[in-house]
Amino acid sequence: GAVVSQHPSRVICKSGTSVKIECRSLDFQATTMFWYRQFPKQSLMLMATSNEGSKATYEQGVEKDKFLINHASLTLSTLTVTSAHPEDSSFYICSARARGGRREQYFGPGTRLTVT
Amino acid sequence: AQKITQTQPGMFVQEKEAVTLDCTYDTSDPSYGLFWYKQPSSGEMIFLIYQGSYDQQNATEGRYSLNFQKARKSANLVISASQLGDSAMYFCAMREAYSGGGADGLTFGKGTHLIIQP
Question: How confident is the model over A82-101, as a mean pLDDT?
Answer without folding.
Answer: 89
